[in-house]
Amino acid sequence: MAADSVSGYIQHHLTNASMCMADGHIAFNHHCENAGFWTWHIDSLLFSVGLGALFLGIFYYVGQRATEGVPGKFQCFVEMLIEFADNAVRDAFHRSDRFIAPLGLTIFVWVFLMNLMDLVPVDWLPQLFHLMGAEYFKIVPTTDLNITFGMSLGVFILIVFYSIKVKGAKGFAKELTLNPFNHWAFIPFNFLLESVTLLAKPFSLALRLFGNLYAGELIFILIAALVPMWFQWTLSVPWAIFHILVIVLQAFIFMMLTIVYLALAHEDH
Amino acid sequence: MNINATMFGQLISFAIFVWFCYRFVWPPLIDAIEARQKKIADGLADAQRAVKDLKLAKEKATDHLKDAKAEANKIVDQANKRKAQIIDEAKEQANREREKIIAQGKTEVEAERNRVQEELRAQLAELAVSGAEKILERSVDKDVSQSIVDKLVAELK
Prior knowledge:
The complex is a heterodimer.
Chain A: H1 3-13, E1 18-22, E2 25-28, E3 39-41, H2 42-64, H3 73-92, H4 100-116, H5 124-131, H6 145-177, H7 187-226, H8 233-266
Antiparallel strand pairs in A: 1-2, 1-3
Helix pairs in contact in A: 1-7, 2-4, 3-4, 3-8, 4-8, 6-7, 6-8, 7-8
Chain B: H1 6-136, H2 142-156
Helix pairs in contact in B: 1-2
């Protein structure tokens, strides 16, 4: 492949299908280059919402047919995940909120499913959508910074919500201003430190997940772009096997850190 | 790669999904799990109790068996004693009966003998008189001889 077409291929695979309003009409891709903030990555959203709905649909179906007697194999599997999330929350929390564990479960399974799209060979679905007329299509939502930031923003809102709920607005303000140096003169300095600490949480969540998955996807794309077709499997298969570990681990880390951040929000200093 | 409205789309779907999971997915499953956990815990406790009960029952049964054996031995002993007693009593009674029968027999024999003796004596007297009558035929004074015979008879007693 020529260098030009290689970079073009990579660039093509890293571009989201976008949608926006331009001149009062719905416009796509290139027409959205100047749309600024109000651009929607429809591929990311489609797969993210689709996978989330798939996950919840299946779990809802199992939940409606759940028996407290001897469970079937699939119910066992679902219950394992439920208990996994429940135990993670129980280990981190002294007084558990019934809301945290379902949150953790949703994050874990959803992020895992979104990451799992990374294991679909890089050209399959984009090619399929290309035949259907879509110019760009990225099927791994977690390689889109908007998706990871969307989720970490939700977590951030929950951190603030629980901080205020548990400690009160005054307690939360105190925590931001009178820590780590408990003296009025240090209030601006403390506030700076604590704000950075607080804001670092959603950033680290979003960037960690995005970084890992983006890098993983990039390697797949590089293999597909640079290595001859008949030889690709020698590189992509080992990388995919290694990636199985990465996608589970990243989903787990996202869930665990969310739980830990919320547990910290519950704690009084 | 830029931040745009997609982030809010994802935030909203995140919120909806988490709420849905919290509201509809989580409760039935965690309830089923907890109910089953309780069932299993109860079952294990029951099993443990059953084992304990079984041990107690076995001990009780052994005790009962021991008691029954002792009781049986006692009864056998009593029966043996009673048997000996009954035998002794029977022997004694039989002895008494025998003696009574013997005594009765003796009395009867005595009475019979006396009667026979009396009879014989009467017959002998008659016989003697008739004999004497035959010997003496006509010469003898009946009165004298009668008195002699009576004397004789008296001596026989």
